[in-house]
Write a structure and sequence with these properties.
The complex is a heterodimer.
Chain A lengths: L3 E4 L2 E5 L6 H18 L6 E6 L5 H14 L3 E7 L2 H10 L4 E5 L8 E8 L7 H13 L13 E3 L3 H12 L3 H7 L2 E5 L6 H10 L3 E5 L19 H10 L3 E5 L6 E5 L10 H10 L7 E5 L4 H9 L3 E5 L3 H10 L4 E3 L5 E3 L9 H15 L3 H7 L4 E8 L2 H10 L8 E3 L4 E4 L3 E7 L5 E8 L2 H20 L1
Parallel strand pairs in A: 3-4, 3-5, 4-7, 8-9, 8-10, 12-13, 12-14
Antiparallel strand pairs in A: 1-2, 2-6, 5-6, 10-11, 14-15, 16-20, 17-18, 18-19, 19-20
Helix pairs in contact in A: 1-2, 1-4, 3-5, 6-12, 9-10, 9-12
Chain B lengths: L6 E4 L2 E5 L6 H14 L4 E6 L4 H15 L3 E7 L2 H10 L4 E5 L8 E7 L8 H11 L15 E3 L3 H10 L4 H6 L3 E5 L5 H12 L3 E4 L21 H9 L4 E5 L6 E4 L8 H4 L1 H10 L4 E4 L4 H9 L4 E4 L3 H11 L3 E4 L2 E3 L9 H15 L3 H6 L5 E8 L2 H14 L11 E5 L2 E7 L5 E8 L3 H21 L1
Parallel strand pairs in B: 3-4, 3-5, 4-7, 8-9, 8-10, 12-13, 12-14
Antiparallel strand pairs in B: 1-2, 2-6, 5-6, 10-11, 14-15, 16-19, 17-18, 18-19
Helix pairs in contact in B: 1-2, 1-4, 3-5, 10-11, 10-13, 15-16
The chains are: A alpha/beta, B alpha/beta.
Chain lengths: 460, 456
């Protein structure tokens, strides 16, 4: 079976069997063609950044050839966190971008993500236009005199990014605390710019998994189980907080000073807690339909409002803009601030917000986590071939007649004490089930029942 | 040119027009097939200065990486330096991105095997077999190797030439040379190469960092080299050298600015090799008869081959010859079995320094032949039949039939063969008598061919 997903979230798949250099050339040619049309440029300038996976260099060469062939110039960001590319495209006034990197995907996968001149991932309607060109398979072609060139992004763009990162927090307050933190970059791109952040924020940082080898030291999705390495060294180091980043630094999970590996679901509520502190009522926070109720309660405490939309980083960022929200994020551990005009989830931004919260409240991360209303959350992925996944989801609609039902995005069933959300993944050939309940025992039991029901339907 | 003939499978190469047929996906697919064909390992990639070279370079690198090769990107590099490096470093093969003397809008991938020589017809057909297989052999995440860069490969090549040439003698001769590299790879390397050989003063036209926009059509004909000729005369140079964009061919100008034909430009370096190491020679069937005379004088013989570097290189290795030649190009096997304008320049300069003669004076000692080339249109099928008919008619001259038909007739010889595009017959004639004689013979053959073709 070959795993490939093509959609608004980019071109994703298993390298070699599905995601090949041929598809990468085609995707880049389609994006370059789309950008030249929409930006009305003869020689559009496209920013490209990669993560550290072994196949990223191959995909980068393929993307470069595709972009040059359709008459684009390239600004090469090299190995760089996705947030810096999002920022740099706006800062350098580029016409678009392509992000190459597997992010939270398991070893063996990689992905290409198109970015518009706004610095954000393509919106659903932009992606539709671009994919029409991709599927039409006829691209703009430059002739032999093409003026397309390749240049390196100026180093100053990373300096500007860090300044921008600090502008949304009280950096002097954070500096004054000289926090000792542990960071885990999963051998991804985060360590490329982290030393500058640590130095300027006066962080006493211990960094692990910071080689740029692309070899995954653990599951790249920030989760309690992937935080084990950080957890193991927190106590001997007497660290104030641990941050476990995805390999593209979009997402982050936390480890407290008491060595609790917090669910990645709690990153977003803690960031929201900080953003909403001291602001007036009525602030809007954007998220999706399958994030923890903890967020709803944190926002309610500050008299704010939660807006829910489709699942996926792009949709959530779009929703933030549309609803004029101050913050967006989801249960994967990713957040983005509207104040910095963030165009993508940024784990460094989440980290700065949490450090600011610790500094303001003059308290520990464990104490802050202790104040959160907790639910027990169960996340499961049920493999299901792309061709069957939509039909399977449809069969599940009538699963719980007693629950409040919404199909705004996937299937959401709500009860007094908990909820279940089931939807086809947009990035992998599977169904995802998320379930949250007040009691751990009930949550686990319900999860087991529902998964066997789903598996029966998928297996039909 | 016919719109359907804008992608050409040449000898050892895939050549096409940029923006039309030679798209990145095609280049990447051929590269990944090549990576599989050579059995992975280290593959070198280099290009000439054409603007489209950067795009193709990335496409080729992606294809090779996807096939699981270790890729070393050598950037802008003469093709002979690349070929030599494959052998020296024990690589699996190389891809040169260059359309050589073809117009700027063309580019090509040239495939080089583990011996550092171009793929033969048989090897090319094996590569096509791999290319046309439906199952891909792309590697998974764990199978990727790193991409590395090496910008110093010319140095190895140059050192191998410098160490064999009497640079002290060249230095003592106080030579003044004008060069025109057509803003090709030579613009980056040739000036320093000649300085280190001991040339006293060098005049150039080329940009230091060439952008690949050729100042004139890259074919090295007298019409395209008027500026170089003028420069040689104005500055009273001892000689002028014109290189093609990827540095495998050389055209010679004498001290008066006279541009020699590609057949004559090779004679001085060939003579020098035969003086150094008398022996047998491998040459394309299209080569001037003057070479055979030179070889016979030193007691050697010529092994004729089909046209194309791949064929000459194989003859050199098989017959252990001391020299290879085709129009405009010299192969000096001591350095490497590939066409090499840098070796040709060095040998020419050594000859000038040792003989203490002017270029025109040395050329005056060479056997004199006059040439003529005519073409006649015909399709590939009737071309083959016409060639057979011609061979039958002139059987008494014992014609050679392995690539078209070559008929030696005393002071005159003629070669009739299919053009690269396959839609014409080319008639080459050399006569020791006069230019008019050569042209007359060529015209006779053309009307005979047209008669054959008309009767079909």
């Amino acid at each position: 079976m070959r795993f490939l997903r093509l959609g608004a979230a980019g071109l994703r798949g298993e390298v070699g069997t599905a995601l090949t250099h041929q598809l990468a050339i085609r995707y880049a040619s389609a994006l370059g063609t789309w950008v030249s049309i929409t930006q009305k440029k003869d020689v559009p300038v496209i920013g490209v950044a990669t993560d550290t996976r072994a196949s990223s260099e191959m995909l980068k060469s393929a993307v470069f050839s595709g972009l040059l062939a359709c008459g684009c110039s390239i600004v090469d960001f090299g190995i760089m966190p996705s947030a810096v590319l999002h920022f740099g495209i706006k800062k350098l006034k580029l016409d678009g971008g392509i992000l190459i990197g597997a992010g939270h995907h398991p070893a063996g996968w990689n992905a290409l993500v198109g970015i518009s001149a706004s610095g954000a991932c393509l919106t659903a309607s932009e992606a539709q236009e671009m994919l029409e060109i991709y599927h039409g398979n006829v691209f703009r072609t430059a002739d032999w005199k093409s003026e397309g060139t390749i240049s390196h992004a100026p180093e100053t763009v990373t300096f500007d990014y860090v300044d921008d990162l600090f502008s949304s927090v009280d950096i002097d307050l954070i500096r004054s605390r000289n926090f000792r933190i542990v960071t885990d970059f999963c051998n991804g791109s985060g360590s490329v710019i982290f030393s500058r952040i640590a130095r300027k924020a006066n962080l006493d940082a211990i960094v692990i998994n910071d080689s740029l080898s692309g070899e995954l030291p653990h599951d790249p999705e920030p989760r309690p189980r992937t935080s084990a390495q950080v957890k193991a060294i927190m106590k001997p180091l007497k660290a104030d907080a641990g941050f476990v980043f995805s390999s593209d630094v979009g997402r982050v999970a936390l480890v407290t000073d008491t060595c609790e590996t917090l669910s990645e679901e709690y990153t977003f509520p803690l960031v929201a807690e900080n953003i909403l502190s001291g602001t007036g009522p009525g602030k809007v926070i954007a998220t999706n339909s399958c994030s923890t109720r903890t967020l709803d309660q944190v926002v309610a405490r500050h008299c704010g409002k939660v807006c829910k939309g489709m699942t996926g980083e792009t949709y959530t960022i779009d929703l933030m803009k549309e609803k004029n929200a101050v913050l967006c994020g989801d249960g994967s551990g990713g957040t983005a601030l509207s104040s910095s005009g963030a165009a993508g989830f940024d784990g460094f931004s989440s980290m700065m917000q949490i450090l600011e919260l610790m500094a303001r409240r003059e308290t520990s991360l464990s104490a802050l986590a202790g104040m959160l209303p907790r639910y027990h959350i169960v996340k499961r992925t049920i493999p299901c071939r792309s061709v069957n996944v939509y039909a399977a989801a449809n069969k599940l609609i009538k699963l719980f007649p007693d629950a409040e039902f919404s199909n705004l995005d996937g299937l959401r069933f709500d009860w007094e004490d908990g909820w279940v959300h089931i939807r086809p993944s947009r990035t992998e050939p599977s169904l995802r089930m998320i379930l949250e309940w007040k009691s751990r025992a009930v949550a686990e039991e319900k999860a087991m029942n529902i998964i066997s029901m789903i598996e029966r339907v998928v297996g039909e | 040119m016919n719109q359907f003939r804008r992608l050409i499978v040449g000898i050892s190469s895939i050549r096409g027009v940029i923006g039309e047929r030679l798209q990145p996906s095609l280049a990447a697919d051929f590269a990944s097939s090549f990576g599989g064909y050579v059995g992975k390992g280290t593959v070198l990639v280099a290009r000439d200065t054409r603007p489209s070279g950067i795009m193709l370079e990335h496409a080729v690198i992606s294809g090779l990486l996807a096939a699981g090769c270790k890729v070393v990107s050598a950037g802008v590099l003469p093709t002979p330096s690349l070929q030599l490096a494959v052998k020296e470093y024990g690589c699996s093969g190389a891809i040169a991105i260059t359309a050589s003397q073809h117009p700027a809008e063309w580019n090509a991938l040239k495939f080089i095997n583990r011996d550092g020589i171009y793929l033969s017809d048989q090897e090319m057909s094996d590569l096509f077999d791999v290319y046309n297989q439906p199952e891909d052999g792309f590697v998974r995440e764990s199978g990727f190797h790193a991409l590395s860069r090496n910008q110093d490969l010319f140095e190895e090549h140059a050192k191998k030439i410098w160490s064999r040439i009497d640079t002290a003698a060249i230095r003592a001769a106080n030579l003044k040379i004008a060069i025109d590299c057509c803003n090709g790879v030579g613009a980056v390397y040739t000036k320093r190469f000649l300085k280190n050989l001991g040339v006293d003063e060098i005049f150039t036209f080329d940009d230091d960092i060439p952008n690949g926009i050729f100042r004139h059509s890259p074919e090295m004909t007298a019409e395209n080299l008027t500026a170089l000729s003028e420069c040689v005369r104005m500055n009273q140079c001892d000689a002028g050298f014109a290189q093609d964009p990827d540095g495998d061919s050389l055209t010679l100008l004498d001290e008066t600015g006279k541009v020699y034909s590609e057949q004559k430009s090779i004679l001085i370096p060939c003579m020098r090799v035969l003086e150094r190491t008398p022996g047998n020679v491998s040459a394309s069937i299209q080569i001037t008869a003057a070479l055979e005379e030179l070889v016979q004088k030193t007691g050697g013989k010529v092994f004729y081959t089909k046209v194309g570097e791949a064929n000459i290189a194989r003859s050199i290795l098989q017959n252990k010859t001391v020299l290879g030649a085709e129009g405009g190009s010299v192969i000096w096997p001591e350095v490497h079995s590939c066409r090499d304008s840098f070796a040709a320049m060095a040998l020419t300069l050594e000859k000038l320094a040792y003989s203490k003669l002017k270029v025109s004076e040395i050329m005056a000692q060479m056997p004199e032949y006059h040439s003529a080339v005519l073409t006649t249109d015909c399709n590939a099928q009737s071309a083959s039949e016409a060639i057979r008919a011609l061979a039958q008619k002139y059987e008494r001259f014992h014609p050679e039939l392995f690539d078209g038909v070559r008929i030696p007739m005393g002071k005159v010889w003629t070669l009739v063969r299919k053009s690269y595009s396959g839609s014409a017959l080319k008639i080459y004639v050399e006569s020791a008598v006069s230019k008019a004689d050569a042209l007359g013979v060529a015209e006779t053959f053309r009307s005979e061919l047209e008669k054959f073709l008309g009767n079909m």
